[in-house]
Design brief:
The protein has 325 residues and is an alpha+beta fold. The chain contains eight helices and twelve strands. The strands form two sheets. The chain has a nine-stranded mixed beta sheet, with helices on one face. The chain has a three-stranded antiparallel beta sheet with strand order 9-8-11, with no helix packed on it. Helix 6 packs across helix 8. The longest helix has 20 residues.
Amino acid sequence: MQSKIQNPKSKIEQEFAFADLIAPLTATTFFDKYWEKQPLLITGREPDYYANLFTMSEVGPLLFRGQPGEDLQLAKDHERLPPLQPFDPLKVRQLYHAGYSIVLNYVFRRHEKLSLFCRSLEDSFHCTVGANLYLTPRNSRGFKAHYDEHDVIVLQIDGTKKWYVFDHCTPLLPGKGYSKVLPAEYGQPLPEAQPPLQQEFWLKPGDCLYLPRGFVHMAHTGPDTHSLHLTFGVHSLSWGQLIASAFEALARHYEPWRHSVPPGFLHNGHAWEAGQEQAAGLAQVLFEQLDTTLNEALALNEAGFRQRPELLPDYRSLFDDSNTP
């Protein structure tokens, strides 16, 4: 699960890319051994390894990039406070020092380098990639044990955080619509948690953690320092989603696929026989047009994840003396 870098280099003077994210592994090793299979922890990098991508000093200014609204969440032990309306930086600071984690969702919409890096990851994974920011005060945790419905890549930017990675949930590789309810023992305060841990470790600046969707995890800070990390969510395209999109593409072009199933299909013998005959004909068309419909579905998916939202405006510029008429 763990890979330690020998003589790691800082990425301050270079553009950051997927290869840097998983170094010293190659993309082939990552996808063959870890992707959707098991967690991966990469340690041993310089603390400023991600300095060209994001730093602690950028957190405060990000809050001025548009009104955070519902993108900003304050969480403590899985309790999420309602969005602050209107936004009050002093209130955020007060709650932070009271133990609440600051969560800035869709942070890539407020930061150009993160937006470009998400685009770079989308080129590697061929699916939508987003990014959230998590700033947790000392001696605190934002969330109890849970799992995500998409793969995540965690970059530790500043401070440290202790992580607990449990076995994966059931079913494997859950997607949208699956229950995220966990056995009660997962949510108990440590060290009383009962399920066997795969591993527990402290994430330090420069570290990287990959978790396939469905792996239960939780994390907390210690008494000596805060924690800042970025989480990149990889929303991959499953075969089931692709086939469903192919069916929709076929229905757009082939009128019989848009017909309703015969009334009483499940309970009427004649309707059942007629339905089976129609279904056989439709299946034949599907196999004949499979390449075309799959290619169309893939093209629509790629067009969707490449429509990255524009960056939000930086309202601080309104008060910049250099912009005075």
